Input
Amino acid sequence: MKRVAVLLFLAATAHAQMVTTQFTARLTDSGDDPPIMPVASDATEPTEPLTPALHVAVPNAQAPRIMTLISPAIAIPFNSRIRQLQAFWNATPLPLIDPRRTQLTEEAHSFGPMIPFFKPLFSIAAIPAGDGTLEIRAFDGGGTQVASQSISGLTIVKPPAPVPTSTIAAMPHPRIYLPSRIAATRSRSDVASQRFGAAVTAFRNALTEFPDVTSAQFEDRIYDPEDYIPLLGLQNQLAPDANLAQAAHTLAMRIANDYDTGKRDFGRDTGYDIRFQLRDLMLAYDWLYSTFTPDERATIVRVATKWIDWYHNTPGYAESWPVENYYAGYLQGIALVAVATAGDNPDADRFFTLLRSKLANEVPIMNQRLAGGDWAEGWNYGPYSVLELSLVNTLLKDIGEDWSVDFDWLQGLPSSLFFMISPDFNQTFSFGGYSGNYPDKTSPSTLAVLSSTSAVAGYLYASTNANPNNDFADIPADTFYEMIFARPSPPPPLAFTSSYFNSGTGRFLSRFGSYTVTTENTSYSYDHYGYANGDVRLYRDSTCLVCPSAYRGPAFDGEAVTPAFSTYTVNGGNQDLPLGRNNQNLFTISNAQFDAIGMRFESSWASSRYDENIVDPNNPLDYMIREAVHVHPGTLVVRDLHRRRHASDTLIGRFHIGSDTLKISRFYPTGVTVTMTNDLDGGGNRIGTLMQLDFASSTSPMELVTVFSETLTGIGYANGVLTLSDGTRVIFANGTVGVQSAAARRRTVRR
Output
């Protein structure tokens, strides 16, 4: 395969992407000159036509602007003949990018060519800016076209013209966040200023009692005082206070001197410190600039320069992996160092070059993988990551360089959070890994930053603050974000919608009245995410009716994996993070009567993590399909279709029930044994009921329907029609779902 090294927009200082002369992605084995993978000829599909021949989930209209590259999310049935792909923009063929030496996409093979099939990278660097249609054409192993999918409504955008470093260097300090916002910040008198003022007062009172901010006594009173540096710097801009400014100065110089002398290590926890300590140092440098001597400023600049160079060259964790919480803090660090030290730092121009390279060559893939909003790792790691990336976007626009094309996904995030926050505003529903001391959390600082451009986020900020039972977990020091950015809002005028689908992360959210239904099914590989495909949940307000055991109980295990969720395990194995790359969401439906989604996720149990393993005949499943229907207001119907490939393949299903009064109706074939046992947290505390489904050995196609409701039961299921106790019918047919109320049926009969 021929390859051409193309430096995509100043990529010389980052990992150069190799734009090849190859236009066809092939589903091959590993190895040198590997063969195309054979078709699993004995694989079958359900009799009902649920799965298209080719499914391309992203890019799409939820993040319609694209730059530099496209990474379509490809999915095919297990028995598919499709083995080759090509991409076209307005009928122009697109060359493939070889992702070696980057972390932009899942590793395709154990060795040999590394161009992936399920998540290929196509270059659009040479395509002129403008609107167009992306077409993916699919071929069998012999080159005969089998299927195609066109995605219209997309726009190619080129990187913005760079603002000269000399222009930024000429800007007075403070130049980060405050110039256009300081007047409004000084004049505010609302919940944000109250929360900020309380944090300032607590710090001031501790300082009066213990004047040495580096003492153990002070740290016993104020946890991690270095995190207060931005808050103190902002307070000094609002109303100068020599004591608070000196405290921030002392703490900032302790950070700088510790890293300069090696007392602290840039590499602690593979580089995690960059997201907070470097932020604190740079905001101190900018907001308290006049308090530092020239020698102190030189020390801070030297440390900041060494820090970015260490992370880039070592490299630190996820240095080129955008959809990862470490990367968010690292990108923020580059932006803050470049802007804050311009004029004092001869390396500032080099850091702007690195930043722009990442924004042009790496971050665009995040905009596609997060289409619709959401954060892949969930809402333990999500708040800071979203805040950091949002403020990179904000800061660059503030200095006159608009990279918002990279952050279209942020536009949908408030709508996603509208459904993720319980309707009583008690909590944000948990997704992904929770490694802290709490199983769920809402971040007022993140909502505040989002509220600066979104009335929906402003409404969520105001409403969660108004609820004394909220699950706020931000440290008081972070109220400086609220003071600068919060825009509390009344309920915005929203068109009726009862569901929201994050096409990037694969999370589906449905809300009607006090009831919320969620599902999860991803085709990407991330940390803290990808082991709960097929999970279904039902909540009334913030009360769990059906929801994971991972986030419940005094001894919760927020990093628990597949058995803690309402889904399946196969052959005793969990779903593994890198495996689900061929998973797909088949459809979503939303209307006044019901919301529904179809999920297919058998590749969650592929034999190994490479592309060829996705179509390995030794895999345990031909298909695993789950349809979830939220019948308004509060009934959850789950229909499962699956077929195991070998009599030796074992299968266990689980539903985690949070309410002892929930009505459960089951319509299962023979060979399914249901047991109800106590659901326990890690300390043995009862948190509900575990309903476990054990399947007898079989290779026959299976269909199961389960109904969860506080008010209704299922009274019959036959030929794809479920009848509920109020006469409502849920109809599964022709690859879709319909709901017919008893009243509508009576009207039909009268006609």
